[in-house]
Amino acid sequence: MPRLRVMSDVGALADQGVADAWARIETGLSRVLPASLPRLTAPAQVQAIDAVEAALGVALPPDFRASLRIHNGTAWGLPSPVPLDCLYDVDEIVEWTTTWRTTMDADPVFDDPRVWAYLVDTKRIHLNGPVRPTLSAAGRVCVGTMNGDVHWFLDLDPPPGGTPGQVIRVDPECTAWDVLAPSWEQLLIRYAEDLELYAADPESSGLEIAPEAGPECEWGSPRGVSGTRPAWLQEVEALNPYTR
Protein backbone atom coordinates (compact mmCIF):
# COMPACT_ATOMS: atom_id res chain seq x y z
CA MET A 1 0.00 0.00 0.00
CA PRO A 2 1.46 3.42 -0.91
CA ARG A 3 2.85 5.44 2.00
CA LEU A 4 0.50 8.39 1.35
CA ARG A 5 -2.48 6.04 1.47
CA VAL A 6 -1.29 4.61 4.80
CA MET A 7 -0.84 8.11 6.24
CA SER A 8 -4.30 9.07 5.01
CA ASP A 9 -5.85 6.01 6.66
CA VAL A 10 -4.08 6.72 9.95
CA GLY A 11 -5.27 10.31 9.85
CA ALA A 12 -8.84 9.25 9.16
CA LEU A 13 -8.81 6.86 12.10
CA ALA A 14 -7.42 9.57 14.37
CA ASP A 15 -10.06 12.02 13.16
CA GLN A 16 -12.91 9.62 13.92
CA GLY A 17 -11.58 8.46 17.28
CA VAL A 18 -10.99 12.02 18.47
CA ALA A 19 -14.37 13.19 17.18
CA ASP A 20 -16.09 10.35 19.05
CA ALA A 21 -14.17 11.17 22.25
CA TRP A 22 -15.06 14.87 22.07
CA ALA A 23 -18.70 13.98 21.48
CA ARG A 24 -18.66 11.89 24.66
CA ILE A 25 -16.99 14.75 26.57
CA GLU A 26 -19.57 17.25 25.39
CA THR A 27 -22.40 14.89 26.35
CA GLY A 28 -20.81 14.35 29.76
CA LEU A 29 -20.37 18.08 30.34
CA SER A 30 -23.99 18.69 29.36
CA ARG A 31 -24.96 16.36 32.20
CA VAL A 32 -22.60 17.52 34.95
CA LEU A 33 -21.33 21.00 34.02
CA PRO A 34 -23.45 22.51 31.22
CA ALA A 35 -22.32 26.07 32.01
CA SER A 36 -18.84 25.15 30.76
CA LEU A 37 -19.92 24.19 27.24
CA PRO A 38 -19.68 27.71 25.75
CA ARG A 39 -15.92 27.63 26.48
CA LEU A 40 -15.35 24.86 23.97
CA THR A 41 -14.00 26.86 21.07
CA ALA A 42 -14.41 26.68 17.30
CA PRO A 43 -12.03 24.61 15.14
CA ALA A 44 -8.59 25.75 14.09
CA GLN A 45 -7.80 25.95 10.39
CA VAL A 46 -5.38 23.40 8.94
CA GLN A 47 -3.02 26.21 7.89
CA ALA A 48 -2.88 27.48 11.48
CA ILE A 49 -2.00 24.00 12.76
CA ASP A 50 0.68 23.66 10.10
CA ALA A 51 2.06 27.00 11.29
CA VAL A 52 2.46 25.61 14.81
CA GLU A 53 4.57 22.75 13.47
CA ALA A 54 6.68 25.13 11.41
CA ALA A 55 7.21 27.56 14.28
CA LEU A 56 8.20 24.87 16.77
CA GLY A 57 9.99 22.52 14.37
CA VAL A 58 7.90 19.50 15.39
CA ALA A 59 5.36 17.13 13.88
CA LEU A 60 2.25 17.18 16.04
CA PRO A 61 0.61 13.77 16.63
CA PRO A 62 -2.29 13.17 14.21
CA ASP A 63 -4.79 12.82 17.05
CA PHE A 64 -3.80 16.21 18.49
CA ARG A 65 -4.10 17.82 15.07
CA ALA A 66 -7.54 16.25 14.77
CA SER A 67 -8.48 17.63 18.18
CA LEU A 68 -7.50 21.16 17.19
CA ARG A 69 -9.76 20.77 14.15
CA ILE A 70 -12.65 20.24 16.56
CA HIS A 71 -11.78 22.64 19.38
CA ASN A 72 -8.91 25.12 19.08
CA GLY A 73 -8.17 24.97 22.79
CA THR A 74 -10.71 26.21 25.31
CA ALA A 75 -11.64 29.76 26.22
CA TRP A 76 -10.61 31.32 29.53
CA GLY A 77 -13.39 31.72 32.07
CA LEU A 78 -15.32 29.79 34.68
CA PRO A 79 -16.43 27.12 34.88
CA SER A 80 -13.74 25.49 32.79
CA PRO A 81 -14.71 22.45 30.70
CA VAL A 82 -11.35 20.77 31.40
CA PRO A 83 -9.21 20.12 34.53
CA LEU A 84 -7.15 23.24 33.81
CA ASP A 85 -7.78 26.96 33.38
CA CYS A 86 -7.65 26.28 29.65
CA LEU A 87 -6.26 24.27 26.81
CA TYR A 88 -4.15 26.55 24.63
CA ASP A 89 -5.13 27.59 21.14
CA VAL A 90 -2.65 27.37 18.28
CA ASP A 91 -1.11 30.78 18.95
CA GLU A 92 -0.76 30.12 22.68
CA ILE A 93 0.83 26.71 22.03
CA VAL A 94 3.60 28.42 20.09
CA GLU A 95 3.92 31.26 22.61
CA TRP A 96 4.13 29.12 25.72
CA THR A 97 6.23 26.31 24.29
CA THR A 98 8.70 28.92 23.09
CA THR A 99 8.66 30.54 26.54
CA TRP A 100 9.47 27.21 28.21
CA ARG A 101 12.24 26.54 25.70
CA THR A 102 13.90 29.89 26.29
CA THR A 103 13.59 30.06 30.08
CA MET A 104 14.09 26.46 31.27
CA ASP A 105 17.65 25.30 30.60
CA ALA A 106 18.98 21.81 31.16
CA ASP A 107 20.67 21.32 34.53
CA PRO A 108 24.00 19.47 34.22
CA VAL A 109 23.78 18.17 37.80
CA PHE A 110 20.13 17.25 38.21
CA ASP A 111 19.27 16.11 34.67
CA ASP A 112 20.71 12.66 35.33
CA PRO A 113 18.70 9.41 35.75
CA ARG A 114 20.88 8.43 38.73
CA VAL A 115 19.97 11.68 40.47
CA TRP A 116 16.30 11.25 39.58
CA ALA A 117 16.39 7.79 41.19
CA TYR A 118 17.86 9.32 44.37
CA LEU A 119 15.25 12.11 44.42
CA VAL A 120 12.42 9.60 44.05
CA ASP A 121 13.85 7.34 46.76
CA THR A 122 14.10 10.27 49.16
CA LYS A 123 10.62 11.55 48.22
CA ARG A 124 11.89 14.86 46.89
CA ILE A 125 10.13 14.28 43.56
CA HIS A 126 7.17 12.13 42.53
CA LEU A 127 7.02 10.25 39.22
CA ASN A 128 4.12 8.34 37.76
CA GLY A 129 5.09 6.55 34.58
CA PRO A 130 7.82 6.97 31.97
CA VAL A 131 8.40 10.72 32.14
CA ARG A 132 11.63 12.64 32.72
CA PRO A 133 11.40 14.92 35.78
CA THR A 134 12.66 18.04 34.03
CA LEU A 135 11.19 21.47 33.39
CA SER A 136 12.86 21.70 30.01
CA ALA A 137 10.56 21.84 26.98
CA ALA A 138 13.03 19.85 24.87
CA GLY A 139 10.93 17.29 23.01
CA ARG A 140 7.74 18.69 24.50
CA VAL A 141 4.85 20.91 23.42
CA CYS A 142 2.94 22.89 26.06
CA VAL A 143 -0.82 22.53 25.52
CA GLY A 144 -2.49 23.84 28.69
CA THR A 145 -2.11 25.34 32.15
CA MET A 146 -3.71 25.83 35.53
CA ASN A 147 -2.81 29.16 37.11
CA GLY A 148 0.76 28.85 35.88
CA ASP A 149 1.32 26.07 38.44
CA VAL A 150 0.21 22.91 36.64
CA HIS A 151 0.93 22.28 32.96
CA TRP A 152 0.04 19.69 30.34
CA PHE A 153 2.55 18.78 27.63
CA LEU A 154 2.71 16.51 24.65
CA ASP A 155 5.86 14.49 25.31
CA LEU A 156 7.35 13.73 21.89
CA ASP A 157 10.60 12.23 23.23
CA PRO A 158 9.82 10.17 26.34
CA PRO A 159 12.23 7.89 28.24
CA PRO A 160 12.19 4.09 27.79
CA GLY A 161 8.70 2.65 28.11
CA GLY A 162 7.00 5.88 27.11
CA THR A 163 5.01 6.55 23.95
CA PRO A 164 5.90 9.51 21.70
CA GLY A 165 2.95 11.88 21.89
CA GLN A 166 1.99 10.84 25.41
CA VAL A 167 0.34 13.49 27.57
CA ILE A 168 2.13 14.48 30.77
CA ARG A 169 1.15 16.63 33.71
CA VAL A 170 3.95 18.72 35.25
CA ASP A 171 3.47 20.31 38.66
CA PRO A 172 6.71 22.11 39.61
CA GLU A 173 5.36 23.36 42.95
CA CYS A 174 4.56 19.82 44.11
CA THR A 175 7.59 18.37 42.24
CA ALA A 176 5.32 15.87 40.50
CA TRP A 177 5.35 14.47 36.95
CA ASP A 178 2.53 12.20 35.76
CA VAL A 179 1.81 10.42 32.50
CA LEU A 180 -1.89 11.08 32.02
CA ALA A 181 -2.36 8.99 28.88
CA PRO A 182 -0.26 7.37 26.12
CA SER A 183 -1.83 9.66 23.49
CA TRP A 184 -4.11 12.68 23.17
CA GLU A 185 -6.99 10.51 21.99
CA GLN A 186 -6.58 8.24 25.01
CA LEU A 187 -6.53 11.30 27.27
CA LEU A 188 -9.85 12.46 25.80
CA ILE A 189 -11.31 8.98 26.24
CA ARG A 190 -10.10 8.82 29.84
CA TYR A 191 -11.67 12.21 30.54
CA ALA A 192 -14.93 11.20 28.83
CA GLU A 193 -15.09 8.03 30.93
CA ASP A 194 -14.55 9.96 34.15
CA LEU A 195 -17.27 12.46 33.21
CA GLU A 196 -19.62 9.56 32.56
CA LEU A 197 -18.71 7.95 35.87
CA TYR A 198 -19.17 11.28 37.63
CA ALA A 199 -22.66 11.63 36.17
CA ALA A 200 -23.58 8.13 37.34
CA ASP A 201 -21.73 8.05 40.68
CA PRO A 202 -19.36 10.91 41.61
CA GLU A 203 -17.51 8.80 44.16
CA SER A 204 -16.43 6.31 41.49
CA SER A 205 -14.90 8.95 39.21
CA GLY A 206 -11.40 10.34 39.29
CA LEU A 207 -12.86 13.82 38.94
CA GLU A 208 -13.71 16.39 41.55
CA ILE A 209 -15.88 19.16 40.11
CA ALA A 210 -16.62 22.53 41.67
CA PRO A 211 -19.80 23.85 39.97
CA GLU A 212 -18.51 27.42 39.91
CA ALA A 213 -14.97 26.58 38.72
CA GLY A 214 -14.95 23.22 36.95
CA PRO A 215 -12.90 20.04 37.35
CA GLU A 216 -10.02 20.15 39.82
CA CYS A 217 -6.55 20.20 38.24
CA GLU A 218 -5.40 17.27 40.41
CA TRP A 219 -7.20 14.95 37.99
CA GLY A 220 -4.72 12.35 36.81
CA SER A 221 -2.36 12.69 39.77
CA PRO A 222 -2.44 9.33 41.57
CA ARG A 223 -2.07 8.70 45.26
CA GLY A 224 0.49 6.37 46.76
CA VAL A 225 3.40 6.88 44.35
CA SER A 226 5.57 8.89 46.74
CA GLY A 227 8.97 7.23 47.08
CA THR A 228 8.16 4.64 44.38
CA ARG A 229 10.34 4.44 41.29
CA PRO A 230 8.58 3.90 37.96
CA ALA A 231 9.64 0.83 36.00
CA TRP A 232 12.07 2.67 33.74
CA LEU A 233 14.17 3.79 36.75
CA GLN A 234 14.11 0.51 38.67
CA GLU A 235 17.62 -0.67 37.76
CA VAL A 236 19.35 2.71 37.94
CA GLU A 237 21.93 3.18 40.71
CA ALA A 238 20.99 6.21 42.82
CA LEU A 239 23.38 9.16 43.01
CA ASN A 240 23.15 11.82 45.73
CA PRO A 241 23.72 15.16 43.96
CA TYR A 242 24.33 16.96 47.24
CA THR A 243 27.53 15.08 48.09
CA ARG A 244 29.47 15.79 44.87
Brief descriptors of the model:
244 residues, single chain, SMI1/KNR4-like, 6 helices, 36% helix, globular, disordered N terminus
Would you kindly provide a written description of the structure presented here, covering whatever features stand out?
The chain is of the alpha+beta class. The protein has a single domain, classed as SMI1/KNR4-like (3-Layer(aba) Sandwich). The protein is 36% helix and 14% strand. It has 6 helices and 8 strands; from the N terminus they run αααβααβββββαββ. A 6-stranded mixed beta sheet has the order 1-3-4-5-6-2. A two-stranded antiparallel ribbon has the order 7-8. α1 crosses α3 (62-68), α1 (3-32) packs parallel to α6 (184-200) and α2 runs parallel beside α4. It is globular, with a radius of gyration of 18 Å. It starts with a helix and ends in a 29-residue tail after the last strand.
Q: What's the helical proportion of residues?
A: 25-40%
CATH topology grouping: SMI1/KNR4-like
CATH class type: Alpha Beta
Strand count, sense and barrel status of the largest sheet are: 6 strands, mixed
Name the overall outline. Answer: globular
SSE succession: HHHEHHEEEEEHEE
What is the CATH superfamily?
Answer: SMI1/KNR4-like
Q: Could you tell me the number of beta strands?
A: 8
Low-confidence stretches: 3-8
Terminal CA distance = 56 Å
CATH architecture: 3-Layer(aba) Sandwich
The count of helical stretches stands at 6
Strand order of the largest sheet: 1-3-4-5-6-2
Q: Name the structural class.
A: alpha+beta
Mean pLDDT: 92
Radius of gyration: 18 Å
Proportion of strand residues: 5-15%
Structurally, the number of domains stands at: 1
